[in-house]
Amino acid sequence: MTDNKITKEKNKVSKLSTDAVEKALNKTFEEPKLKKTRFRPNIIITGTPGCGKSTLSKTLKEMPDLKIKLFNISEYAKENKIFESYDETRDSHVIDEDELLDRLETPLREGGCIVDWHCNDIFPERLIDFVVVLRCGTSALYHRLKARNYKDSKIQENIDAEIMSVVLEDALDSYDKRIVIELQNDEDKNIQENVDKIKTWIEQWVLDNKTGVTNEIDEFYKDRDMPEDWDSDEE
Ligand SMILES: Nc1ncnc2c1ncn2[C@@H]1O[C@H](COP(=O)(O)OP(=O)(O)O)[C@@H](O)[C@H]1O
Ligand SMILES: [Mg+2]
């Protein structure tokens, strides 16, 4: 090879590596850790304890084409030890909600999550697409909670909450009414019916939102009123 040719080759190689670095850098900019847009819906499955949240959520997760990421919040909090305190009267741990929200921000921004929890009012509206409130008749609920060996006082507390629609009211207070849906879940056949309904909503949401839905608070509230209790530190 002549000196001239060698110089040319060297220039080519150095150009190639510059291109590769530039490409890698651009890729980093194109794929930030926190996604600005999601292309699959996030769903909260909520309801009084015993209503069937975990049964329904697990059945949905088993459907491979839905590619669901499931967060059973009670289990998730235990696994990740994100407790704030212990409530003696209720005999249960109190979850550190700020820590929980920080940890769920990234997966919720990616979309396709199901959140299984009886509390539904702490998640930011901008990240939630459907809130499914499972409902159950008192007789079925009593038998389910009795089978869990709950104390009578705890069974009664949950049955009262179900009769008074406490979880539904929380959802209606926290999210746009159009995304809150009640589903009856008393009998075995309801499980498949509810799975079919939710699967259809997910598929329709994907079709309706081909360009994605924003995860960003400013974009989300562009055409709406900011909530009165909005705290600019939330982000
Ligand atoms: N549609 C249904 N019909 C009959 N039993 C159900 C139904 N859904 C759930 N169950 C049963 O009720 C009990 C409580 O369900 P689970 O999913 O653990 O409720 P949650 O997660 O809301 O506390 C379980 O034993 C489950 O098998
Ligand atoms: Mg459960």
UniProtKB/TrEMBL annotation:
Stretches for region LID: 147-157
| Species | Hanseniaspora guilliermondii
Tell me which EC number(s) this protein carries: 2.7.4.3
* InterPro entries the UniProt entry points to: Adenyl_kinase_AK6, P-loop_NTPase
Any idea which positions bind ATP? 50, 52-55, 148
Reading the lineage from the top rank, the first entry is Eukaryota
PANTHER family associated with the record: ADENYLATE KINASE ISOENZYME 6, POS9-ACTIVATING FACTOR FAP7-RELATED
Self-association and partners: Interacts with small ribosomal subunit protein uS11. Not a structural component of 43S pre-ribosomes, but transiently interacts with them by binding to uS11.
Pfam families associated with the record: AAA_18
Principal location listed in the UniProt entry: cytoplasm
Q: Please report the name of this protein according to its UniProt entry.
A: Adenylate kinase isoenzyme 6 homolog
Q: Region NMPbind: what ranges?
A: 72-95
Which top EC class applies here? transferase
